Amino acid sequence: MESLLSPSKRKLLIEVAWEVCNQVGGIYTVIRSKVPSMVEKWDTDYILLGPYFPQRAAVEFEPITHDDGTEIGRVVQSMRSRGLEVQYGHWLITGKPRVVLFGIQSLGPAIEQVKYQLWERYQISTLGVEDLVNQVVGFGELVRIFLTELAAESARHVDIAVHFHEWMASSGLPDLRRDNVKVATVFTTHATMLGRYLAQNESGFYGKLPFFDWKREAQHYNIEAQATIERLSAQQSHVFTTVSDVTARECEVFLGRVPDLILPNGLNIVRFTAVHEFQNLHVKFKERIHEFVMGHFFQSYSFDLEKTLYFFTSGRFEFSNKGYDITLEALARLNWKMREANMDMTVVMFMITKQPFRSINPDVLHSRALLDEIQETCKAIENQLGDKLFLNAAAGEDINLPDLNQFVDEYWRLRLRRTIQSFKTKQLPPFVTHDLVEEDDMVRFIRQVQLVNNAHDRVKVVYHPDFISSTNPLFGLDYGQFVRGCHLGVFPSYYEPWGYTPLECVVRGIPTVTSDLSGFGDFIMQIMRDYENRGIYVVNRKTQSFNEAADQLANIMFRFVRLSQRDRITQRNRVENIAEVFDWTNLRSYYDTAHDLALKRRKP
Ligand code: G6P
Ligand code: 1S3
């Protein structure tokens, strides 16, 4: 198709998302990691729009305080002069793009008129909706005002493409089309609202998919406003896209439009020049996980850390969507297989998610502290012994090694004995690290499959109902470091439009399990034949029953446990080698196509 655009016109790209300078979930990762490669192409003709939350923005936003003479700066001034709160500055991330953030409250009572019009024009009822929807509608209106003014001021000499991410950014999109504002629009849905709810609540979701009545289901789950904004945005954008073929099927049913394009998600990948560097990091951070494991388990019993593998899963608490159920079921089968085979290996599985809790379990904290004390005492004994042995060796005539006990003070011996005594307990190591506000499905399932950390179990479970951060006293690692220290990531999701978690393993050289119902798994199967050989295992959840898929997963893990250390090292090298495929410098081209197409469609 030949471009109909005037070659002399400048192009401007604007991306709009609720998660600009406001981290909530996966979309933040998409936008933020993509920025460097967008800036590389668009330079200063790339701007992002987001909501303004002062506390969140404080750490990642730097205002532009002078008149920069740009069309964006002028529109910002004009909106401010009408009493609207508009922040304009740089997002302090790699690439440092310009951003415009809108203070939603500054719309004041005008929000009521906006909501009335949503009803009058599109039959979107926002009566009695949760506050988040009200905020989203306010944000959408401010975005609409901004784009309308910008187009009026500059569309004669600039071609403007606007990319909206999710319904939370796009409630103003239908009006932009209705008013024929001169901007080309792309709308990307990163998951459908209805898909998220129905996959979680309707058994056999994929089989029933073609037969769902979107409106009835939206009413049933009380998400009619959200689902309708999403549907209208999909239908009224010049170009409609989603993140995977898996989600594209839902879009057809729930949003009434087949996506024009699929835009797979990438990361901004920085690889080490020396190949062995990431392997060294694995060892370094594995040591830190060892420390936690010693504190947590060794008060009850011990096992050989040289023969211990760390598996983990991580994600928001959508119990069956994220495949936590099948993971636990498969682990129970793995435990049985390992015991039957008389294996001396141990697998420690970390289930990382976020659930309401009161505090870290005091016993877990206490045992961690006691372990630290044992370590300090050992260090003190080591120093004392070393010094005295040296003196003795230098001064003495006897060339044989003396009895070392004589070099350690009674005080240190007693202290070590006492600490070890209070460290030891007859109780089983807890399988949950925090005091939960209430018992949840994870706890119930762990009990049901009896993975309760008995001494004879080859598979141990640590349920950590909080995301990992470096301030966390149990690990003292950030999420990326924790991933590096593990051996295998396990993410056999049932509902996952894309799924960054397996990709986050791949780029750190950690093998991973995904599923063919996740966008990432589906994509890898399309682009690579020998993915398993490269350390990416895909569980078939599309055509297998829960039971069959659990068996497949148990077998995958059992094979992994039987790999030699040499095999594991080779596999880590192979998986890390794939990373570049997912670098935005490669995947940006999908976005480029979407923007070009929107600009072409807008023109005629
Ligand atoms: C890296 C290091 C090796 C180490 C190995 C442990 O490859 O370079 O020195 O032996 O990790 O691997 P493992 O799979 O047992 O944690
Ligand atoms: C969504 O975030 P989620 O975890 O709620 O968007 C992500 C980015 O596209 C995607 O990776 C994920 O699968 C979706 O579910």
Written account of the structure:
- This protein has two domains: 10-268 and 586-602, 3-Layer(aba) Sandwich (Rossmann fold), CATH 3.40.50; 275-361 and 430-580, Rossmann fold (3-Layer(aba) Sandwich), CATH 3.40.50.
- Helices cover 48% and strands 14% of the residues.
- It has helices spanning 26-42, 54-60, 71-81, 110-122, 131-154, 173-178, 193-201, 205-208, 214-220, 224-236, 245-255, 276-297, 324-340, 362-395, 410-423, 441-448, 479-485, 500-506, 519-527, 546-561, 565-578, 584-602; strands at 10-16, 46-51, 61-63, 85-91, 98-103, 158-165, 184-189, 239-242, 261-262, 308-314, 346-352, 357-360, 434-436, 459-464, 488-490, 512-515, 536-539.
- A nine-stranded mixed β-sheet has the order 3-4-5-2-1-6-7-8-9, sandwiched between helices. It has a six-stranded parallel β-sheet with strand order 14-11-10-15-16-17, with helices on both faces. It has a two-stranded antiparallel ribbon with strand order 12-13.
- The longest helix is centred in the middle third of the chain and has 34 residues, at 362-395.
- The model has no long low-confidence stretch (mean pLDDT 94).
- Residues 279-280, 282-283, 286, 487, 565, 568-569 line the site of 6-O-phosphono-alpha-D-glucopyranose (G6P).
- Ligand 1S3 is lined by residues 25-27, 30, 190-191, 243, 265, 316, 496-500.
